[in-house]
Amino acid sequence: MSVSGVGPIASVPLVEDDEVIRKTVGLVLERYGYHVSTAGDGLTGLELFRDARHDLLLLDVMLPGLDGIGLCRRVRETSLVPILMMSARGDALDVVSGLEAGADDYVVKPVDTAVLVARIRSLLRRATVTSALDPGGRDRLVFGDLAVDTGALEVFRGGEQVALAPTELRLLLEFAANPGIVLARQTLLRNVWDYGWDGDSRVVDLCVQRLRKKIGADRIETVRGFGYKLRR
């Protein structure tokens, strides 16, 4: 039985060097119905991730050998699986570095298990909805050299297909549905990250930054003090 009671069990590799945290978090996730495999360092975590198909990667920033930032980058070279990062309280630089490396979201240590499970559910739901989304036809939205096929969920820039992670794709779809309209960070957190509470706007800023690198730096405009908008 899955977490929701139907469908396959979600596989979540947990990479954490602190044995107590690793065991505690692993037990909590298993209690919620996830299949958890664990590793205590970055290189072992990378091997663990590559050995099988997984639905979400949960990792700590501070890992021996290959650290969490490096692990995140290595995973992103070949996979668009959702990545949730754990960071010690106050390590703002680690959070930013992790999000820049391709993490989709983060939780603060010591981990509040209710928040952790909620974030995992949100990321998994977001990835599932994105993969199943079909707004009623293969509509092709064009913005300069950028084309978004909302039916096939494919993005092209200058005729070349662009590979986007699920969160990046959902963010672009949100912009594409509202071209020229300024979207506040909290609106994006609610509609894209599925937050039912105030989230850290840095996840929006860093995801926009990653998206700009892929679709063109001038395609998404920053409206200071308000948010972002997609240029028509």
UniProtKB/TrEMBL annotation:
Q: Which GO terms describe its biological process?
A: regulation of DNA-templated transcription
Q: Which GO terms describe its cellular component?
A: cytosol; protein-DNA complex
What range(s) does the OmpR/PhoB-type domain occupy? 138-232
One GO MF term attached to the UniProt entry = transcription cis-regulatory region binding
Name this protein carries in UniProt:
Transcriptional regulatory protein CseB
**At which residues is 4-aspartylphosphate found?**
D60
PROSITE patterns, per database record: OMPR_PHOB, RESPONSE_REGULATORY
Matching InterPro entries, A to Z? CheY-like_superfamily, CseB, OmpR/PhoB-type_DNA-bd, Sig_transdc_resp-reg_C-effctor, Sig_transdc_resp-reg_receiver, WalR-like, WH-like_DNA-bd_sf
Record-linked CDD domains: REC_OmpR, trans_reg_C
Gene3D superfamilies reported in the protein's UniProt record: 3.40.50.2300, 6.10.250.690, Winged helix-like DNA-binding domain superfamily/Winged helix DNA-binding domain
NCBIfam families of this UniProt entry?
resp_reg_CseB (NF041733)
Residue ranges of every copy of the Response regulatory domain listed in the record: 11-124
Q: What are the record keywords, sorted?
A: DNA-binding, Phosphoprotein, Transcription, Transcription regulation, Two-component regulatory system
Q: Which gene encodes it?
A: cseB
